[in-house]
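ok new one. same drill as before - structure tokens go in, u give me an amino acid for every spot. 209 of them this time. try not to just spam alanines like last time pls lmao
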């Protein structure tokens, strides 16, 4: 069986296949890159119907990354999927505290999820940063609470937790109340690969500017 072996050729062909699914959506060139990366990561063209990008999200995210901001994640799978070499070249780092012993202890003591405790532990470090949540709705709810109650202002919130309990609601609340730019997907879709793909789309976009 003949098949494409070159990684760059595989990516180019993938983007060619994805392109027709975006026709008629009237997307900016930047939004097309984000949509394409997400659809490519998921292998699911139906994402084109549910991706929502705040009008200031691309500019805010790219500017923050260009200035060397850090990225804060809810789970290791998101951290692992982000291109850390490219981020480091801009001066940033990726952080995740889900496996931290003190975070686990706080979560147990307070009766909350570890992802919630992790976001609380990040605290003011979220100011001016990119927050990427791909797994835990509770982490997104906590970031929304922190923005509302403490005045923390990330540069961009990528909120794409996946699942059937709280995921849709957390993303709906983000889109409805966020005081900062955001990128999200409606409904139960999402996941760590989607969060990482969104971050990488912004990182690569900055390289191409």
């Amino acid at each position: 069986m003949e098949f494409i072996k070159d990684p760059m050729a595989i990516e180019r062909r993938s983007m060619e296949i994805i392109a027709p699914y975006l026709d008629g959506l009237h997307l900016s060139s930047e939004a097309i890159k984000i949509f394409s990366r997400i659809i490519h990561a998921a292998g699911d063209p139906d994402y084109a119907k549910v991706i929502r990008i705040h009008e200031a999200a691309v500019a805010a995210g790219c500017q923050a990354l260009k200035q060397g901001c850090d990225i804060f994640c809810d789970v290791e799978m998101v951290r692992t999927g982000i291109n850390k070499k490219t981020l480091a070249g801009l001066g940033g780092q990726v952080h995740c505290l889900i496996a931290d012993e003190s975070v686990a202890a706080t979560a147990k003591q307070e009766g909350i999820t570890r992802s919630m405790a992790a976001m609380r532990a990040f605290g003011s470090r979220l100011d001016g940063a990119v927050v990427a949540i791909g797994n835990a709705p509770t982490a997104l709810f906590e970031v929304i609470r922190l923005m509302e109650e403490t005045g923390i202002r990330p540069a961009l919130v990528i909120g794409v937790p996946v699942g059937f309990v709280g995921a849709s609601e957390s993303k709906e609340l983000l889109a409805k109340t966020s005081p900062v730019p955001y990128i999200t997907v409606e409904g139960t879709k999402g996941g760590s690969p989607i969060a990482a793909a969104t971050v990488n789309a912004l990182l690569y976009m900055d390289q191409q500017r």
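The longest helix spans residues 192-208. and btw The chain is about 55% helix and 10% strand.
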